[in-house]
Amino acid sequence: MAFGDVGAALVAWFLYPGFLFLFACAWAFEWFDRLTIARSQARVGPPWFQPLADLIKLLAKEDLMPTGTKEVLAAGLPMLALASSLTAVLYVPIAGRAALSFEGDLIVVLFLLSLPALCYFLAGRVTGGVYSLLGGNRSLLQYFSYEVPFMIALSGPAILGGSWSIAQIAQHQDATGWGLLVQPLGFLLAIIGLIGKLKRDPLDIPKAKSEMVAGSLTEYSGRKLALWHLAMNVQAVVGVFLLVNAFMGGQSFHQPLLNGVGFALRSLLIVFALSGSSVLYARLRIDQLANLGWRVLAPLGLLQILVILGIGR
Amino acid sequence: MRRITIPIGPQHPLLKEPVSFLLDVEGEQVLDSVLRLGYVHRGIERLAQERSYVQIVHLVERVCGICSHVHTTTYCKAVESLMGLEVPERGVYLRALLCELERIHSHMLWLGVLAMNMGFDTVFMYAWRDREIVLDMMEDLSGGRVSHAVNVIGGVRIDLDEEQRKDMLARLAQLEQQVLRAKNVVEHERSLRARTEGIGILTPEQAKQYCVVGPVARASGLDMDLRRDMPHLPYSELDFEVITHDAGDVWARTLVRVLETVESVHLCRQILENLPDGPVSVRAKRRAPEGEAITRTEAPRGEVIYYVRGDGSESPARLKIRTPTLTTLITLPEQLRNVAVADVSVVLSGVDLCIACADR
User: Fold this and answer.
1) Contacts of B194 in chain A (CB under 8 A)
2) Using the beta-carbon criterion (under 8 Å), do B14 and A287 form an inter-chain contact?
3) Per-residue pLDDT tens for A156-168?
4) Which chain B residue has the Cα nearest residue A279?
5) What are the chain A neighbours of B339 within 8 Å (beta carbons)?
6) What digits encode the pLDDT tens for the residues A8-61?
7) How far apart are CA A44 and CA A306, in angstroms?
């Protein structure tokens, strides 16, 4: 392998679209999200470096686990969650360019985005404690409620684009305009699904503070907790990028810089939608979510697919 | 499915004060619960027997961290009736003014706590921001935001001048606007209603059986309020409505409390507008004669009862306090039966516990 290739691979691995870029995005999104929520709640909000400061603080904290916890498993789970999100981002085009792409990568990304949910559930199991256990169980229940509508919602753009490759779905929208315009319902479902996936307000049911203390992560502390937070934040980034590609078109300009700015703005728009739902609604009960998922969202998703098929003909 | 026991307390993010519930849970369903009390017992009643009547005013102010003024008011009234003192009308009005401000403060604090416990941080933030208005008013009036030390035996130690009175009326108008906004949210916000409606129901019969008082009883359709039922100054001269609701669930309690807050704002305004002239207190003796006195006051959470027995010395032979939280606490095992785990936080917040009051 030539030196140039190794260099390019290292850059891709560590800088763009690797760790550094993703972490920077994760922190930027988290800050934007917290600021938006704070401002809508008549608060000041954190300074821009707060997410990074939180991470550093957590890294420096003592790492304690209850006796009887399988340490390797407890430490491995957040790593696996982080790794799967980091892998998923390879297939998601950023500003029109994906690191890797093949027909069917949408399915792979959806799978990779589901892995953290499994890790979260297992984390509740391995660390013991009733809050962790119940939080873990709830996360699984929640998974079954949001995942189906989320998948249905994301198959809409795929059908419309005639491909199961995210890059091609995005490219297809260059010609037809944003998919959001044709399938607003699908976009809404995808947003709700993403909220459920990220366990954000108002679907933070598995980690509801007033009931489950912190859900699966109750017993986590220090470095492992920091890793969990990072994994969740990176998952948020991938989810947001995925929605931008699926519903808000791909490359709109022929200028890379303009493309980058446009992509960032569209991503922030989705983060804004997530923040908005946190501000506006009270947390749902798990049975209310299950009802919503299966009785309302899934049929609506199917309806959206029908509409798309009708347009396609 | 396996039955597990979930401990809520004595330390838990849900609770602001130490109390313990052991929930017997199967899946997401709470089957039964065990209540344990006494984590903040400070022996106040016993301590009172060692203190003089004047010192006890400051002692009972610390029974509760929210409705401190109601406790001193009730205590002072009991001692005054024991000593045969007549508090001047202006003093009575000023006492009532602080009682009403405290009710607003307590109800808004509670609305915030309920909202936070159901994951609705926005309502929490706004409720607590608007509560600052009333805290500032109390601070200007007495120097303290929560503990006011306003009552003395024989009256109050503060007075209002004309400028302060006008300033408070202006702030009340601002407060009313915010409270009406909160009322709008409670009445119409759908996710809030979805979480509170049909939860923690107490039927009127149950409420009667458990001797529930205050907003919880009124939300269960029991039309009781000492401010009206036991005519005394200044309430007998003021115009207000006793809010009741028939549903008996947490939503009804929320609505009753918010509407009561609006009524309290009106009451404050009437008190300020009809404030009589004259002195605010009379001089009290150090010793109370032999005898006993019972007084009752409508606190933010319901009826507070004080019993004082004097033996002719400087300190009482016995002081007994009964707080409204005690009655609601014993209804909780009933309310927590066959609810979802997620509703526990709503039920526990809905009754507005004051553990410090109950434990004393």
Assistant:
1) 282, 284, 288
2) no
3) 888 887 888 888 8
4) B122
5) none
6) 777 776 777 677 888 888 889 999 999 999 999 888 989 999 998 998 998 888
7) 45
Contact flag A213-B12 (C-beta cutoff 8 Å): yes
What does the angle CA B267 – CA B272 – CA B277 come to, to the nearest 5 degrees? 130
If pLDDT is split at 50, 70 and 90, which confidence band does A313 have? low
| Residue count of chain B | 360
Taking contacts as CB-CB distances below 8 angstroms, the residues of chain A near B117 are 210
Q: Which residues of A132-163 are buried (b: 16+ CB within 10 A; e: fewer)?
A: bbbbbbbbbbbbebbbbbbbbbbbbbbbbbeb
Contact A211 B344 (CB under 8 A): yes
Structural domain for B122, as ranges: 3-358
- Number of helices (H), then strands (E), in chain B: 15, 9
Distance from CA of B172 to the nearest CA of A (A): 20
Q: Is the pTM of this model over 0.90?
A: no
Contacts of A205 in chain B (CB under 8 A): 342
Q: What is the ipTM of this complex?
A: 0.80
- Cβ distance B212 to B220 under 8 Å? yes
Q: Do A209 and B13 make contact, defined as CB atoms within 8 angstroms?
A: yes
Cross-chain Cβ contact A43/B125 below 8 Å: yes
- Alpha-carbon distances, residue A137 vs A20, A121, A125, A200, B208 (angstroms): 33, 7, 9, 17, 39
Q: Give the CATH number for residue B272.
A: 1.10.645.10
* C-beta of residue A197 within 8 angstroms of C-beta of residue A240: no
